[in-house]
From TrEMBL:
Residues 33-71 form the Leucine-rich repeat-containing N-terminal plant-type domain. Gene3D superfamilies: Ribonuclease Inhibitor (3.80.10.10). InterPro entries: Leu-rich_rpt, LRR_dom_sf, LRR_N_plant-typ, RLP29. It catalyses: L-threonyl-[protein] + ATP = O-phospho-L-threonyl-[protein] + ADP + H(+); L-seryl-[protein] + ATP = O-phospho-L-seryl-[protein] + ADP + H(+). Residues 1-26 form the signal peptide. This is Leucine-rich repeat-containing N-terminal plant-type domain-containing protein.
Length: 229
């Protein structure tokens, strides 16, 4: 095929224009699509009486400032922005926490304190290896503590106090090498404290008052100045 010089210019220009568009698209930082889907699933499973999450449909979670969604300020090596924190306390949210929450794989702080959330703590939270703070105090959560929470090797603090959690304390909590604070008071946790938990290396606060535990308080734990049982 023969192209005139004019046509040639058009073709070259079009190619450059396409290249330019690709460059622009590459610089446009967006949230990891898996995390966007997870956030949509989380919203879907909650009742939000004040409409605080009504902007969770507009644009991109990290760049359009979805309420309570805090992201890392830079893209990671995979080229995406990632959710660092969910800060959703005191919003009267009810219904359940979707298991997709476990796909927020880079999250460090999860805060749903003082809502009216029912159902159990999703075991998928145990997949969030980066989690430092797990804050679920003051809800209506039931069911037992998932063993998977013991896999959270970076956890500093677990606060599940003032819920209706039942069942035993998981022995897997003995793996929580970095956890300083366990606030688990005012629930219906039962059984004995697993002896494996007596030697948690970073333990500072271990609150278990107003539960349904049996047996005795291990001497190792009672030496802690701040323990309540
Ligand atoms: C949630 O919604 C209520 C009612 O509109 C409002 O007063 C409150 O400031 C909102 N909170 C957040 C964190 O957006
Ligand atoms: C992002 O945050 C990190 C750590 O807080 C900081 O060192 C870095 O300078 C920030 N980057 C930008 C682009 O703001
Ligand atoms: C995308 O992120 C990179 C690295 O974090 C940054 O240098 C660049 O300015 C960002 N681009 C946009 C459009 O925000
Ligand atoms: C959230 O609610 C709790 C319990 O009602 C209250 O003690 C706390 O001050 C509230 N926090 C905020 C930030 O509104
Ligand atoms: C916790 O620390 C001990 C002692 O450093 C180590 O042997 C163990 O493997 C650690 N456990 C986990 C789950 O990292
Ligand atoms: C915890 O439970 C005790 C005993 O049922 C109760 O007196 C106390 O008010 C509860 N604390 C909170 C903060 O709900
Ligand atoms: C505590 O355990 C007893 C005996 O199993 C049970 O009858 C009672 O309902 C439990 N109480 C709570 C608050 O879970």
């Amino acid at each position: 095929m023969f192209l005139s010089e004019g046509h040639m210019h058009q073709v070259v220009f079009s190619l450059w224009f396409c290249f330019y568009l690709v460059l622009i698209a590459a610089q446009d930082n967006i949230t990891d699509p898996t995390e966007v889907e997870a956030l949509k699933a989380i919203k879907e499973r909650l009742i939000d009486p004040n409409g605080n999450l009504s902007n969770w449909i507009r644009g991109d979670p990290c760049t359009s400032r979805w309420t309570g969604v805090l992201c890392f300020n830079e893209t990671l090596i995979d080229g995406y922005l990632h959710v660092q924190e969910l800060q959703l306390m005191n919003l009267s949210l009810s219904e359940n926490l979707a298991p997709e929450i476990g796909s927020l794989a880079y999250m460090e702080r999860l805060n749903f304190m003082w809502n009216k959330i029912t159902g159990s703590i999703p075991k998928e939270i145990g997949n969030i290896k980066s989690l430092v703070l797990l804050l679920l105090s003051g809800n209506l959560l039931t069911g037992s503590l998932p063993d998977e929470l013991g896999f959270l090797s970076n956890l500093d603090r677990i606060q599940i106090d003032q819920n209706h959690i039942s069942g035993p304390l998981p022995t897997s909590f003995a793996n929580l090498n970095k956890t300083k604070h366990f606030h688990m008071n005012n629930n219906s946790i039962s059984g004995k404290i697993p002896p494996e938990l007596w030697r948690l290396p970073k333990l500072a606060h271990f609150l278990l008052d107003n539960n349904n535990l049996s047996g005795y308080l291990p001497p190792e734990l009672s030496k802690l100045p701040t323990i309540t049982y």
